[in-house]
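Study this chain:
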Amino acid sequence: MKKVSKILTFALVLTLLAGLLAVGASAADTEKLVVLTAMNASWTEARGFIEGVEAYNTAIKILPTHDYHGRAANAEATTTVYTATLNAAGEITSLRIPDGIVYGYGVNPASGGKIKLGIDGKEYTLAAGSETWVGNKYGGLLVDTHDQGDATKYTRPIVDAATLTANAYASYGAILNAAGEITKLFIFSPSAAAIPLFDEVKKFQTAEGSVDAETGLKTAYAYYAPAEKADTKYPLVVWLHGGRSGATPWSSIADATNPIAKFASTAYQEQFTAGGAYVFAPQAPESIGLEPYGRFWSEETVASVYLALDEFIAANPGIDTDKIYIGGASMGGGMTWLLVQERPDFFAAAFPVSGYPQTETLTTPKTVIRTYVPDPDVAVEKLAYLPIWAIHGAGDFVAAPARTTAALNALLEVTKDNGTDTRLTLVSDNSHAIWASTALSNMLKGNAPIQDKDKKDVESTLIEWLNGQSASANIGRADGTVEPPKPAVTFTDVAEGQWFYQYITSLVADGIVNGFEDNTFRPDANADLGQLLKLVLLAAKYDAQTGTDTHWAGGYLAKALEDELLVGKTEADLDLPIDRLTVAQIAAKALKLETTLTESPFTDTDDASVLALAEAGIVTGDQGKYNPEGSITRAELSAIIYRIANLDTDAE
C-alpha cells in the first residue's frame, strides 16, 4: 500500500450516465459518476470533466489526508470508476462503486462496430460515439494535469485498432447503455512484465460475494479452481492485493508487481502435496468515506471479505477446509493480520509480506489511526498457535518492519515451546516491493531461496512450509491433543547418512537417550551397565528413575534388582562395559519376552533371551553370529533400544 501526499489529488474524468444518477440540488449532496485516480501531487485542487452536464472545469476541493513520506513526485495510484458524493460546497465527502460497470481482462481490436472483450471473448456492440479511455501501467490516466478539463487529452476512438492491440493484456471497465451497448471503455494498461502471465490469468474467473448487511459492502474476487480428482481435497490459497492493485478484480492478480496468477501455473500447482490448490484473490470493496486510494483494506471490509470467502468455500466442496492459507503484500499484508485476528482457528497458516503496520485516514471530523499488525501482547493472545511466516525488507521505508518484528519476536518466544512453526524473515533487500522477486518466487523448489539480512538461505520454500500446516494441528496444539514436534538433533558426531542416524535422532527426540555436554553422542564408545539399564527400562515403558547420591543410574539399578532383571550387581558395576549377552537377558526380562524357536538363528549361541529378541526382530546379529561375549557400542545399543521402543508390548 502507498500513502498519499498531504494534499490528495484526484483526476475526475468520466460521464454521468443518463438517468442513472441524479445531479442534485445546490443545497443537498450531489452524486456524480467519475473515473477517479489518487495521485501523489502537491496541488490543492482537482479539475474534472463530466460530460452530459456541462464542461465541468471548476475546482473540486478534496479534503487533505496524510503524508506519503513527502515524495510528491511519485504518481502511482489505483484508478477505477466511482460515484463521488459532493456536498453543497463542491467538496467530495464519500466515494462508492456504482452498479452498471462491467470489468474484465483482455481487449481485442474492434471490427464492424463490435468488440470482443474478456478472456472468454464475449462480443459487445459499440454505441454510436463510443470512446476509449486509456490508462498507464499504474492505472492512472494519461492526462495533462494542468489542463484536465479537456477530454480530448485522454480519449480516443474505440475503433482505434492500434490502441486496443497494444492493450490486449489489459484489464478494463466498460459502461453499457440500456441496450447493452458499450458507451465508454476504460483500459488499464499493463506493464510489459505482466504480459507473460496472460496464459495463467486466463485460467481464472471472477465473481462477487453477497452484500454484507451491516456495512452494505460486497467483495468481488478472482479465483482459480484446479482440475479435481475424485476423492481428493485441495488446499485454498487466499491472496490479498496491495495498495495499487485493486482497480478491478483482474488487476488484483494480473499486475506485474502482484503476480498471484503464477499460482495457476503447473509449476506452482504441482508443488502442493495434493497436486494442486484453489486460489481466491479478493478485490478490496468500495470505499467508505474518503479513503486515499478508494479501494482500501480496513476493519470495515473484514466482514465483506469473509462473507465472500465463506460463500466460495461452500460452493466448492473440493476445498480442504483444514488447509486454508492466507497471505498478502503491503496493504494486503496488513489486511492478512486483520483477518487472522478475527478467525485465528480458520486458517492453517498465514504469510504476510511487507505487511503495512498502520495507516492514517482522514474522516470528518477527525483523523483515525487504524492498526493492522497487532501489538505483541495481542499477537500472543490471539495467534500463538497459528503458523505465521512474516517476510519483510529489513530497510523497508514504506512499511517499516519495526511493528512486524515486535509482534513476531513476541510470538517466537511462545511458539518455540508450543511447537508452532512461526518464522520471521527480514530480507537483505531493503525495498518495499519484495513479494514478486523474493517471497512468491521462493514458492518453487529450484528457485533461488530467500536470503535473510545476513545473506543466509531460509530453510524451505513457502509452499513446503504451507504443506506442513493444518488448522486441525493448530487447534490440537492449543488444546493439548497434539504434542509439539520433537526437537532437532545436532550432535557433531552424528550425521545424516550414517547407519545409526535414524535410531539416535528418534530416541533423542523421544527423550530416551541424550548426548554429552560437548555436544557429542560418541556412537563408537562402549556402552556401560548404567546406560543399558536406563535405556532398556525407558524403552520398555518403565517410569524414569531418580539417581542416588553416588550415581546417576542408581535408581535404575534398584528397579532392575527389584524386578529381578539382573542379580548380584552394585553401583560399582554401573560404569563398566557390558557384553551383548547381558543386553539380551535384561531386555528379554524387561519386555517379558519368551521364544518359540526350536533352532537358533545364530551359530554361536542358543540362549533363550537372545532367541526371544531375535524372534521379535530386536536383534539381527552379524553374518549368522550374535557374539554374546563381545562388547556393544552406544550406536549398536541405540538400534536395539529403538526397536524395543517401537514394539507393541504390555511391559510396565
